[in-house]
Specification:
alpha+beta; four-stranded antiparallel sheet; 5 helices; 4 strands; 16% strand
């Protein structure tokens, strides 16, 4: 009878141990399946491309060249249209770029740039240039005009800014 009791205890233990082993195997299989599913989803989200540490560094570190300021010398002197108090406008202009080749391109095309800017400055009304907004509008027009010239002449790049270094109306 004692032996029968031990056999029953052993049978119960074997059943319980087998069930917990089955649960453990099911849990491990589920975790493995989830990991594989996560890897597959990650692969498709990244379009199948491997990302290395070098790729990440190249994207993050964009080397920006120092600013190069190029004066458009001599200063621009134009007669203003009749009807206003001021008769003459004198403007010193500098452009900012980061590419030395672009600055050389501007130097090489200086007559064309100066011609277009002289036409632009000569058509300004002195009343519009008396306040800050008028000067900023003119500055934006100069910026747009120079970049359009660069685009038309198929230059590699654009200027980043235009600065008036002197501004005199008489």
């Amino acid at each position: 009878m004692a032996k029968q009791q031990e056999d029953e205890d052993l049978d119960l233990g074997a059943e319980n141990g087998g069930g917990s082993k089955k649960k453990l195997i099911i849990i491990l299989a589920g975790v493995t399946l989830l990991l594989l599913l996560g890897l597959v989803v990650g692969w498709f989200l990244m379009d199948g491309e491997e990302v290395t540490a070098e790729d990440v560094q190249e994207e993050v570190v964009e080397e920006q060249l120092p600013a190069i300021y190029h004066p458009l010398n001599p200063v621009f002197v134009v007669n203003l249209p009749p009807g206003g108090k001021a008769k003459m406008l004198q403007i010193g202009v500098q452009v900012m770029a980061r590419d030395p080749a672009l600055v050389e391109f501007i130097k090489h095309n200086d007559p064309m740039v100066r011609h277009n800017l002289l036409s632009l400055f000569g058509n300004q009304q002195d009343a519009a240039l008396r306040d800050r907004k008028g000067k900023e509008k003119l500055q934006a027009e100069v910026f747009k005009m120079i970049n359009q010239i660069l685009k038309d002449q198929k230059a590699a790049g654009e200027i980043e800014a235009v600065f008036f270094t002197s501004f005199v109306m008489q």
